[in-house]
Amino acid sequence: MNNFIKKFIIIFLLTLLVSCSGHSGSNGKEDEFVKKITIKIIDDQSKEQRYLLNVMTNGKQVEDAAQLPENSFIITNEKKEAKKQFHLNTKYTIKVSKTNARTIKELSYNKQNGNAEPLLTTVEFTPTNDNDILEIKVKDK
Question: Which pLDDT does position 32 carry in this prediction?
Answer without folding.
Answer: 67
